[in-house]
Amino acid sequence: MRKIYLAILLFAFCFSGMARQAPKSTITRTIFAYGGNYNRQFMRYVIALTKKKDPKICFLPTAMGDNANYIIAWYAACEELPMRPYVQRTYVASYTDKKTFEENLLSMDAIVVGGGNTLNMMAIWKAQGIDTVLRKAYNKGIILAGGSAGSLCWFQGGTTDSRPKDLSIVQGLGFIQTSHCPHYHSEPLRKPLYFENILKGRLSPGYAIDDLAGIVFEDEKYVRSVAVDEKSNTYYVSVINGKVDEKLLPVGEILK
Asked: Is the pTM value of this prediction over 0.85?
């Protein structure tokens, strides 16, 4: 009996030691959100974030209804860049598309979401289960990026022009647990409405981004701000002592 007891203790000790020495996950969940439409500088930065040679990067044009001209513009923007461009349409048919959304998207190194109607895009994603696939991609370490609707989708929510007449609030995927405001300085109504919604508690504090600037998040935490020029910035907007506080986030790199 004593030998059995000692064997159990030895096994427990060895097991606990192995548990303590178990390596932590090396997967980093990364989101690159920029304020406006994609451009070659942003695309080069997405390529760099993948840390891979000739990465596979997929474009999701859902918010523009898979518009053919928008897709052509994507391929044109990717010309001569060290990457392999793909497009995942959502207006598809079973007899022409033989792979699932999950099979396609989870095979990529990065996914870039285009601008357009955020509200319609979110509805289509949920109907097709793409929201769940994007969560899997995020947890797998696939780089997620986008601007306008393509940045708003990663946050809890923000204001959108997806409905007639007035800007309204839309809910995002919530990968980043704050609100977000794209087109911060290029569209005059965005900033005052963002302030009002945060001050009145309709939106949580969050990140505002000019069209030619962007923010990198790693594991849901702010890491750095980048911009295409010295006039573009990123901000954190919150409420302090009952007043809106706009904090300028220093740009660490001007993208070439």
From this structure: yes
